[in-house]
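Per your request, structure below.
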């Protein structure tokens, strides 16, 4: 019996991006296979090449980017051999993509309904009225509240989670054969996450994500990427229970639930990935690997393994190996003990007498830090830092009728009260569009409350004037949901970082 042709097969894919300072080797020999109805998870740290693999497949590489070698076979047709016009026709029809940054991927000048139905109008030549009806239907399927009114809204009028659902609807509206989902559920509440993941379950899916919980529950196989390469691929259950590459094992050890279950401090992989413009000769993970040898630093291992489980590692994980977290803790303790012994010898002097201590300090005594294997201690209670008292925020909605006279009021936040103590982390959760981000904007002073009060260190933010009103932004900072949309594309990163210090008159 013949083996069915994979829906998608990527072979030895190399993608380069030319920049002023050199060439970024974004992908170096990537191999992926996705079968019909299968979900392949692709995981790895930021910058490992996950999104670049997707953009290579879609023909949407940034300026200076090109596929230098390799092939991408979609139902047997090589996309790398197709002219750009033919690849464009496949987008949305055979291949759909959910982009990572929904706000920057949506047209701010077009209403949502027109954007969702645009693929239908372009690819299927569907009449506008019928396409809009399909847009409402698909928005309803992705869990959008009030889809009939949302189609008449603009992107900036929606919450981050609602914009994410619009992106998902646009990717699915033409019923593609394969879907590339780049962090598709990061801005969604848990209920909607499950609804979306169940909706795309019947397609061939490449699921790019940092959420290993989503990977564990919604993928058939997983490929792990590091510095532009696939370092391990396995069936999902096998990867979680029997990881073989040292990088995969380290990722698993860094899961917060592992530290919580074992009552140990959270493990983090030391160092950072290598620069893709100056790659090492050997294994790209060697500089961060606790098990690396000269062999690892001298050459790159080929993909090996058995059957569906392949990995590229000279010293793969064995079943009875010490975990990365345990090994790191032991090495830290030994290093601290050695330093303590050296200090004790120095204090004794050249005569060799005893120092005023045991001469064999524990890791805690050696460097003043807590034993890394010890569970975290509860912080002592502290005073109130932030006090939100029945804060409300109302927006005037556009009126109806020809002269727009009958204007209404939308209550985004209604009498919310929050108390946050010094040193405390306060969680604020809820479904998309329930007002979480609006509360954050009120606290950060980015919008004035319509009612109530917000106090920081006992000072009412509404009463601050002049320099005090400016300085409050130094004390209250906000990390925005859409990071790319929050940065000025005309400014360099150093200018963006220096701007708040210039405004606050701090630093040089």
């Amino acid at each position: 019996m013949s083996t069915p042709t994979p829906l998608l097969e990527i072979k030895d894919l190399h993608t380069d991006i030319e920049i002023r300072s050199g060439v970024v080797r974004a992908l170096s020999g990537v191999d992926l296979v996705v079968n019909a109805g299968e979900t392949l998870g692709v995981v790895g740290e930021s910058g490992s090449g996950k999104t670049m693999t997707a953009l290579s497949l879609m023909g949407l590489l940034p300026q200076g980017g090109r596929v230098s070698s390799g092939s991408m076979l979609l139902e047997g047709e090589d996309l790398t051999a197709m002219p750009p016009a033919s690849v464009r026709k496949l987008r949305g029809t055979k291949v759909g993509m959910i982009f990572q940054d929904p706000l920057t991927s949506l047209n701010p000048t077009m209403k949502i309904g027109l954007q969702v139905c645009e693929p239908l109008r372009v690819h299927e030549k569907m009449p506008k009225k019928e396409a809009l009806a399909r847009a409402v239907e698909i928005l309803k399927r992705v869990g959008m509240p009030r889809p009939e009114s949302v189609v008449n809204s603009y992107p900036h009028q929606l919450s981050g989670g609602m914009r994410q659902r619009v992106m998902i609807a646009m990717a699915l509206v033409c019923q593609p054969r394969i879907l590339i989902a780049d962090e598709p559920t990061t801005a969604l509440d848990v209920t909607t996450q499950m609804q979306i993941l169940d909706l795309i379950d019947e397609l061939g899916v490449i699921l790019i994500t940092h959420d290993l919980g989503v990977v564990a529950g919604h993928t058939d196989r997983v490929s792990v990427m590091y510095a532009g390469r696939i370092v391990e691929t396995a069936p999902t259950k096998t990867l979680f229970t029997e990881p073989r590459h040292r990088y995969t094992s380290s990722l698993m050890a860094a899961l917060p639930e592992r530290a919580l279950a074992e009552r140990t401090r959270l493990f983090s992989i030391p160092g950072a990935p290598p620069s893709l413009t100056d790659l090492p000769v050997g294994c790209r993970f060697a500089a961060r690997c606790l098990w690396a040898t000269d062999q690892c630093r001298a050459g790159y291992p080929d993909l090996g393994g058995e059957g569906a489980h392949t990995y590229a590692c000279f010293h793969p994980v064995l079943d009875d190996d010490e975990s990365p977290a345990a090994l790191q803790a032991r090495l830290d303790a030994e290093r601290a003990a050695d330093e303590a012994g050296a200090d004790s010898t120095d204090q004794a002097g050249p005569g060799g007498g005893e120092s005023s201590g045991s001469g064999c300090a524990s890791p805690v005594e050696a460097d003043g830090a807590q034993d890394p294997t010890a569970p975290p201690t509860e912080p002592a209670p502290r005073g109130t830092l932030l006090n939100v008292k029945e804060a409300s925020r109302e927006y005037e909605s556009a009126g109806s009728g020809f002269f727009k006279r009958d204007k209404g009021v939308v209550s985004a936040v209604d009498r919310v009260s929050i108390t946050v103590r010094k040193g405390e982390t306060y969680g604020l959760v809820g479904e998309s569009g329930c007002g979480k981000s609006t509360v954050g904007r009120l606290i950060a002073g980015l919008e004035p409350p319509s009612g109530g009060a917000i106090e920081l260190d006992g000072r009412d933010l509404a009463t601050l004037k002049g320099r005090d009103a400016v300085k409050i932004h130094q004390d209250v900072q906000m990390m925005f949901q859409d990071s790319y949309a929050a940065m000025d594309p005309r400014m360099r990163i150093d200018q963006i970082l220096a701007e708040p210090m210039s405004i606050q008159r701090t630093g040089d």
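The chain has a mean pLDDT of 84.

Regards,
D.
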